[in-house]
Design brief:
It is a single chain. The protein is an alpha/beta fold. Helix content is about 40%, strand content about 15%. It has a seven-stranded parallel sheet with strand order 3-2-1-4-5-6-7, with helices on both faces. β1, α1 and β2 form a beta-alpha-beta unit. α3 runs parallel beside α4 and α4 packs parallel to α5. The structure holds nicotinamide-adenine-dinucleotide. The site of nicotinamide-adenine-dinucleotide has 27 residues, from α1 and α4.
Length: about 280
């Protein structure tokens, strides 16, 4: 029996190669496990090889197929090396999930509005840190797409899944770089979907609502570890009144990567958000 993981439904991905950037992270790691449980061979891509290897070991020990590659998704030379390694080893990619991303702490400001004052304002964010935020989330999505999608041409069920955010629809306070980069991710997803529509590669995105993971920890907790006011606002702004559980993203992911389920779906940015995006707050 192959690798098992708690998935809401099974789609047959046997024979498929799935590359997951940020595959050692919260959302990416869970996607690796879920795809492996559907029979895909997983390339777990992250900056930290040891952390990628942990995900690989779990999948392989459970009877699945997985392989770790370390690379920074914002660096062209690194991604070209990834392309050669994958080409040599597998000769193709069927599924590309761009889950590397997140908030860059040094580009976060403490206040929601300028009038709130505070020691660090928008005007104090170093250009380098704002650029880091844009690079990680936007460049870190289009660069892997640009370099890796040629390996997806003429492959069964070829599809890209990007990870956008609620902040793409209307910007979240305190994180101007992240918000504008994620708006770019949604826009680029639609652009690439149109561009590749007749090539057999579908391109979609998920827009998760609020899930507790490493990259957003600093935004949700006070320095002493207690929940901060932003957490209460998030829960009040989410009609379902709670944070999402990471495994609640799996069904939407499997739907979008299965051409049997979503073969005529391309260019969508699918919210999985407990209603956050449909609620005006009043
Ligand atoms: N958690 C949420 O509530 C939430 C909401 C909306 C969108 N997202 C998005 O989901 C994606 C996954 O985030 P997560 O919440 O699982 O966070 P996470 O911190 O658990 O995972 C992010 C992963 O990206 C990797 N990474 C960071 N920079 C990288 C780089 N330059 N090259 C390669 N890998 C890099 C990290 O090592 C980590 O493995 C991100 O794009 C994030 O913006 C998360």
């Amino acid at each position: 029996m192959g690798y098992t993981y708690d998935i809401p439904f099974h789609v047959d991905l046997s024979g498929r190669v799935a590359v997951v950037t940020g595959g050692n992270g919260g959302i990416g790691g869970m996607f690796c496990r879920a795809l492996a449980a559907c029979g895909a061979t997983i390339v777990v891509l992250g900056r930290n090889l040891e952390r990628c290897q942990l995900v690989v070991d779990e999948i392989v020990q459970g009877g699945g197929n997985a392989f770790a590659i370390s690379a920074d998704v914002t660096v062209e030379a690194a991604m070209l090396r990834v392309k050669s390694e994958i080409e040599e080893r597998f000769g193709k990619i069927n599924i590309l999930i761009n889950a590397a991303g997140g908030n860059v702490k040094t580009a976060i400001i403490p206040q929601e509005q300028m009038a709130d004052g505070g020691e660090k304002t928008f005007f104090d964010i170093p250009v380098s840190e704002m650029q880091k935020e844009l690079d990680l989330n936007l460049r870190g999505t289009w660069l892997p797409c640009k370099i890796l999608t040629p390996l997806m041409l003429n492959q069964e069920g070829a599809c890209v899944l990007n990870v956008s955010s609620m902040s793409a629809f209307s910007p979240l306070t305190k994180i101007p770089g992240y918000s504008s980069a994620k708006a770019g991710v949604s826009n680029f997803t639609q652009w690439l979907a149109t561009y590749m529509a007749r090539s057999g590669v579908r391109v979609n995105a998920l827009a998760p609502g609020f899930f507790m993971t490493e990259q957003n920890h600093a935004l949700q907790f006070n320095p002493d570890g207690t929940p901060n006011a932003r957490q209460k606002k998030i829960i009040a702004g989410t009609p379902m009144g709670r944070y999402g559980e990471l495994n609640e993203l799996i069904g939407a992911m499997l739907f979008l990567v299965s051409e049997k389920a979503s073969g005529f779906v391309t260019g969508v940015v699918l919210p999985v958000d407990g209603g956050y995006n449909c609620y005006s707050g009043v």
